[in-house]
Amino acid sequence: MKKTFSITAALALALSLTAVASADPVEGTVAEPVNGAVTDTSGVVTDTSGALPIVTDEPVIKPHDVVLVPTPMIELTKVTYFYNAPNGEKLGALAPQKIDTTDVRYDVVLGGEWVEVYTWLGKAWIYVE
């Protein structure tokens, strides 16, 4: 019982000192925010009650960030295996879906082509007939 009381008293003292230290008075003057309409010397009324606009010196989207020519999409109609390189090791399989390509392709003599695509494991290759 004595330990509980002494711990409670120590915590109360620490918290009261923290409250007193954080409640120090403000030195100097505190300006109140101006809300409503303000008339400047030219007679023009400006509304300042809303949020201030964001002003930037440079555009948010820069020209080099815009994709001008998107990469072609491929629609898979059946389960397709993907590889680490053309004719390389199998990494996994993709279910039927539309996938984005990197626009890198290698033609094969027999009529198909190897296409580099984006997967959850990074870039990989699929064989498209």
Explain what this protein looks like in three dimensions.
With 129 residues, this protein is α+β, with helices and mostly antiparallel strands. The protein has 1 helix and 8 strands, in the order αββββββββ. The chain has one helix at residues 2-22, and strands at residues 37-39, 45-47, 73-75, 80-83, 90-94, 98-107, 113-119, 122-128. The strands form 2 sheets. It has a 6-stranded antiparallel β-sheet with strand order 3-6-7-8-4-5, with no helix packed on it. The chain has a two-stranded antiparallel sheet with strand order 1-2. Strand 6 and strand 7 form a beta hairpin. The chain is elongated, with a radius of gyration of 34 Å.
Strand content is 25-35%
**Through-space gap between termini:** 82 Å
Order of helices and strands: HEEEEEEEE
DSSP helix count?
1
Q: Tell me the structural class.
A: alpha+beta
Assembly state of the chains shown: single chain
The low-pLDDT segments are none
Mean pLDDT: 77
Relative helix content: 10-25%
Count of individual beta strands: 8
Largest sheet: 6 strands, antiparallel
The value of Rg in angstroms is 34 Å
- Overall geometric form: elongated
| Main sheet strand line-up | 3-6-7-8-4-5
Keywords summarizing the entry:
129 residues, alpha+beta, 6-stranded antiparallel sheet, two-stranded antiparallel sheet, 1 helix, 8 strands, 16% helix
